[in-house]
Amino acid sequence: MISLYVFFFGLIFGSFSNVLALRTHIGKSVVFPGSECPQCQKALAWYENIPVVSFIALKGRCRSCRNRISFIYPLGELFCGGLFLAIYTKFDLSLASILFFSIAVFTAPYIYIDVKIHRLPNLFTLVLAVIELGVFGIKMYQDQSFENLTGLLRDPITALIIFGVIYVVTGSKGMGMGDVKLAPVLAFAAGLLGWQTTAAYLILSFYTAGLISVGLLLSKKASRKSRIPFGPFLLLGFWIAVFLSDSQIQWLVSFWQIKH
């Protein structure tokens, strides 16, 4: 029963996630005006705004103008709902899961905006950083262990140094400052599961970016001069690492150490 509630709340936050993705990059308020048809700008009634259900009931069309509603809306809601359910299934309701829920809400907006305009909004990263400060404060109260707390800080600091050096060396051509800011925020979250998870997240981020970039070049969908956003790969690497088993993470880290 709790799983259903978690999935339902994930759908609701997925609806908000859609608003963040579609409005933030054009400088539009996420609060006003309320939900409306993107075609005729008709304000939506509450029963037209029920995640997924309304889309199905309206057969994917606006009730007023009958224009088609983009599939991005139900897909965004289902994506967030699915992530919420997967997080709860693996981590139950815990300190880590609360942080992961928060990252899940911003995942689709981060990816959409970075692909669209090559930016990772500072506000999103700031909100996650504030939540992580709260998590760190709770861990300080719970653990009373200096070693554990320094371990939590080690991972984001390491990620910040790695990405900061890349940014300086490549002159922002390799990645943007938004990536430099987001990387340690995700590293802190991954570090709640252990340093190996953080290592796996970083390894997977670079490997997936490399593989997909090569694929785009070979398929001629991108050229050597194309700007390929790195933010989506940070998030992809993070979520893969979070849901890998301990044995899979150990194998990945060991394999990488052997190769390097």
Automatic annotation (TrEMBL):
Keyword presence, Nucleotidyltransferase: no
Record field: transmembrane: 6-22, 71-89, 95-113, 120-141, 153-170, 177-195, 201-218, 230-253
Keyword Transmembrane: yes
Domain Prepilin peptidase A24 N-terminal stretches: 9-91
A GO biological-process term: signal peptide processing
Gene Ontology cellular component list: plasma membrane
Intracellular or extracellular location(s): Cell membrane
GO MF entries: aspartic-type endopeptidase activity
A Pfam family reported for this protein in Swiss-Prot or TrEMBL: A24_N_bact
InterPro entries: Prepilin_IV_endopep_pep, Prepilin_pept_A24_N, Prepilin_peptidase/N-MTase
Annotated membrane topology: Multi-pass membrane protein
Gene3D superfamilies for the chain: 1.20.120.1220
Keyword tags: Cell membrane, Membrane, Transmembrane, Transmembrane helix
Prepilin type IV endopeptidase peptidase domain: residues covered: 106-213
Family (UniProt): Belongs to the peptidase A24 family.
Annotated protein name in UniProt: Unannotated protein
Phylogenetic classification of the source organism: unclassified sequences, metagenomes, ecological metagenomes
